[in-house]
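User: I'm curious whether this sequence folds into something compact or stays loose and floppy. Could you predict its structure so I can see for myself?
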Amino acid sequence: MSYYLCVYQYYKDLRYGLLDEAAAYRRRLRRYLDRFLARDRDYASVEFLDGSGRPVCRSQAASGLPPFTARDFSQAARLPAGGWRAFPEGEGGPQPILYFAGPARDKTGRLEGVLALGYDLTRLRRQLASVAVGQDGAVDLRLEDGSTLRGLPSREGWLSAEGALSSRPWTVVVTARPDEFLGPLRRVRRAAIALALAGLAALVGMLLFVLRSMVRPIAELGAAARRIGEGDLSQRVRLSGAEELETLARSFNEMALRLEDTRRETQRLQAQLVQSEKLSAIGQLISAVAHELNNPLAAVSSYVQLARLDGCPPQVKEDLKRVYDNVFRCRKVVDGLLIFARKSRSERKRVDLNLAAKAALELLDYRLAKTEGVRVVQELCPEAPDAMGDFHQVVQVLVNLIVNACDAMSSSTPAAGKVLVLRTGASAGAATVEVEDNGPGIATELSERVFEPFFTTKDPGHGTGLGLSICRQIARDHGGDVLLRSAPARGSVFVLSLPSAPACADAADEGIFWRTYKAVPARRVLVADDERDLADAMARLLREDGDDVLVAYHGGEAKRLLESGRFDLVVSDIEMEHVKGTELYALLAASGAFPACKILFVTGDILNPKVLGFLSRTGADYLAKPFDNEEFRQAARRLLAATGQPAAQEPESQAARQQP
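Assistant: Here's the prediction. I'll summarize afterward.
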């Protein structure tokens, strides 16, 4: 049982009047103190006094030892819990033992008693007295309160030195007569002066020799340091001269090498930062351009589709189909560039890679055959490999790879002529397209850097360095990759790898197309879009279904119409003049028009984070511009079919009812 537990139980039993139990714990405490004294022979006594200073238990190695005084007890009782202090003197001056005392307190901080340890100073005094310092010198120990252990008299005019002990708040004091130290020092001084004069001549000669061997390498080192300070980090110094100079030169060369490596790393990081700023600027620019471009593309797409349904000749219909296909190809090109600004939408379905390869060659047929004179070899797999992805984006990747191959062959025309090989295949769950050229090839150390944004091996003004990086980003967005196999003078092979389409992909593809809905005539519809051509095209499609359509060419006009009448469906752009589509949505929600009135947003700014956040937060239906006419028609029919009774027909002024 520990000392603290014995004390705690002793006082606890006393407080509860359990005198026998308290006496038992008192005996235990006495045995604990006896064992402590027997274990550590340096202590002459150990005793525990209660809170009033009365002895509770005491154990001592010999009789006649001075007691722990009441004055010392009162000082020890004022110490904080866990504190200890030395009490070197009793009532009659220096004592044979040195008391260390500390209070014992309960959990509330109340004083329970004081534990006093008596350290035997006899051996320590004997050791101090055995130290000889000249004839009359002495060594003493100055304690915390300023008294000395041996009690030696003060010696005015004597030399003294002090040193604090690290483990105790005491100081060792050494005193000696001045002449016992200064006499030998005077003799040493005279001998030193003679020796210095004798060696001065030899030293001068040695200095002249050393200076000759040191000045030249130090001068070289200083010159190299100045050149490094001016920015020439390629400077190095010769390893010559004494061992110390050679070590200094080696350290200098290592420092210069590290500085050179640090500057290269700094330049690389600065280049990456510049590229990052370029990407950010391009993302902001294209995000703004995409909105402005998708609006007219949507109008072109709608009117081309309408024209194809107006009984035009077969050749004109085929030409209009080509226009329609290229409208959507323009949208996919913008989406591909926006990969570097933010994640764009992607339509995943089964893609025939043989068909995608042929489509890419068809788009570049004029350049390959007429401009570049490239012989194209198609090694297409008989069983067309199917991949899961976006057909337009896959074609975009192949177009970029083919253009890149043409540029490579143009920079160094092969003796056998320009040959481009397109090869399709499938293996291990992946479908691949290889684009191989017989150009000059790419060095091994550049095989990965060619995919970095803005890195290009072409001459200045002949490339942006974005083509291959966009290709790889699109492929990885599909779960695939673009790899390079190349060697100098052996041409290059770029391999587009995409996940193979699963066997059940056909059924999944059907879900991508629209479910067919019947027309819901005699419904009241408001079309709001500041692109007049597109607004009129959407109104025309809805009127062909038999609906009553009003057109607003800006948000302010749409707001006025919503405030003055009821509608079954509102078709609205999001970014409009005066009042935005989000404000029209808030107006309908505040008026309680939902769910009797539906809203369909059409927007060319689908990649704007604010627009995406609004659509995600509200769950509103939307179509991205440009869209297919039938896609728009079926979306409107689906929403109108979900409404209840049609809105009451309200008369409108001729000015409010806009006709396309």
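Summary: The longest strand covers residues 93-105. The chain has a mean pLDDT of 77.
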